[in-house]
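Progress report, Aim 2. The chain analyzed during this reporting quarter is listed below.
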Amino acid sequence: MCNDCKFRQCMAELEIENKIQDECGVFGISAPGIENLAKDVYFGLHSLQHRGQDSAGIAANDGGKISFYKKLGLVTEVFNDDIMEGLKGDICVGHVRAATKMQGHESYSQPFVVHSKMGSLAIGHNGQLVNAKYVREQLQEDGCVFHTTSDAETIAVLIAKLMKNCTVEEAIAQACLRVQGAFALVITIGNKLIGVRDPHGIRPLCIGKTKNGYVISSESCAFPLQGAELVRDVQPGEIVVIENGEINSVKYATVPVRGCSFEYVYTARTDSKIDGTVVYMSRREAGRILAREDDVEADMVIAVPDSGTVAAIGYAEESGIPFGEGFVKSRYVGRTFIQPTQEMRVQSVKMKLNVLEENVRGKRIVMIDDSIVRGTTSDKIIKLLKDAGALEVHMRLSSPPVMYSCYMGTDTPDRKNLIAANMSIEEIRQKISADSLRYISIEGLKESIGLGDNICLACFTGEYPVELYDIEHETGEKTFVGEYD
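Predicted structure tokens for the chain:
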């Protein structure tokens, strides 16, 4: 690994320590007769960059012949004009992947391309399977060869194997019933662009219409750069097939819907709309509800940028306490050959945030953030404010305490490293040196999202939408059995 990649990994790990990370974003486009769609995918992936900064890839389908390019790095670093000119085809799929402590090698970059009896297949996956090891071992017993332990490769090989005896759509449906967990897929094979969402709808996926065809994306925020209009979400348990400019749909499973609540709290971009809910409005409403559940007296509401900003606006609107800026956030982490050091880790908060002393000096501050995960930086942020002259710092969170690890596609630490799983709220308050600490209630979060019980709250409650057993936290292995009916 080169020094630059080591630096990127160091910064990514610093971010993981502080925030929960989603693992991927997927994008696909079909425009019959348009030969080069790679640039459209490039802009789509750029819009989804917040979902993954570790690697990026594009696969282009030209009459069933698939070419692809994928590499570690940001979208702007991986692709250039020459590379995109070489990716010919009127169907393309793309993928961005988040930096995680596991599977950071370039071989895990997506899309994955496999070959089958019915032709080459390219797949991009967002989510996490909970029985991937079990499925992969079964396929290996049947003679299938794997190059990685990626869920995406597991799904792709399974589909390719099943296509020996049935249609593409039937193979995908059968594969989706054999795997369990969270998945949103974009697939291309033959002259088809296919979008798939898991039966519970845990990961988001939506369809947009352009003047020349259709796009499928993890989030609708990618559509404006395509000149696309949101058509609808891919429904939980649905396979959407776009072929020759037409959309067909296959419903392969019906179970209770459990969309990821953390998409609304943190992961999704604020201008996205997921399952009928605008993310910005949900976060603002969470701030308002948090204020209604609160009784603190203060002089100013500030946000930990950028994840707490919208909730802070809502909190200020509801409470009547003025909203102000407490921090300036550095937007740039440049390419460098400096070796990561412990000193850099210690300085990480100051690298990202600078306090506006004139705004906070002599004031009682309500500081809004989306969550506390490990609790490793909240105390440093509060210390920055108090060193700048803030009289009091009252921390407020627009999500309930994160007490359980996620196995549905959001990269959370093991439970032993989640501060709320190991300390009471008062103990956390003391650890981070806040004058008071309060989280939004479970019911308050549900109200802010507006989808009733159709959301997954497992990271707050431990009630997972699929059955789990024998979870080995130390090794990262997750073993599952069972299939959907």
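DSSP finds 18 helices and 27 strands in the chain. Residues 1-18, 333-342, 469-485 have pLDDT under 50 and may be disordered. These observations will guide the mutagenesis work planned for the next reporting period.
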